[in-house]
């Protein structure tokens, strides 16, 4: 699943905001009991590993000019929640950038 979020910030500022607020991502998962691990394998890529309710979801946040793209690898068993997850990413992802 790919969820682009437009922005008008310099890439450096996007990196800074994502890095400084990545600890808040666990609070965006309903129930607030998610364990989130992030890493920066490249300057414009943050990886995510989210563990919640017995499920593990991996993803990436790609920083591009004019947009940030959240790529989430939903397991087939969670495909039915994709629209809800995409909506939450749009809403909460925007908060990470403001």
From TrEMBL:
A Pfam match: PHA_gran_rgn
InterPro entries: PHA_gran_rgn (IPR013433)
Name of protein: Polyhydroxyalkanoic acid system protein
Record lineage: Bacteria, Pseudomonadati, Pseudomonadota, Alphaproteobacteria, Sphingomonadales
């Amino acid at each position: 699943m790919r969820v682009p979020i437009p922005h008008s910030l310099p890439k450096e500022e996007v990196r800074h905001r994502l890095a400084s607020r990545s600890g808040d991502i666990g609070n965006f998962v309903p129930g607030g009991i998610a364990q989130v691990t992030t890493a920066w394998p490249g300057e414009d890529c943050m990886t995510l590993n989210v563990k919640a309710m017995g499920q593990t979801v991996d993803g990436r946040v790609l920083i591009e000019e004019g947009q940030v793209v959240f790529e989430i690898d939903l397991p087939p068993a969670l495909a039915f929640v994709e629209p809800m997850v995409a909506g939450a990413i749009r809403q909460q992802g925007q908060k990470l950038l403001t």
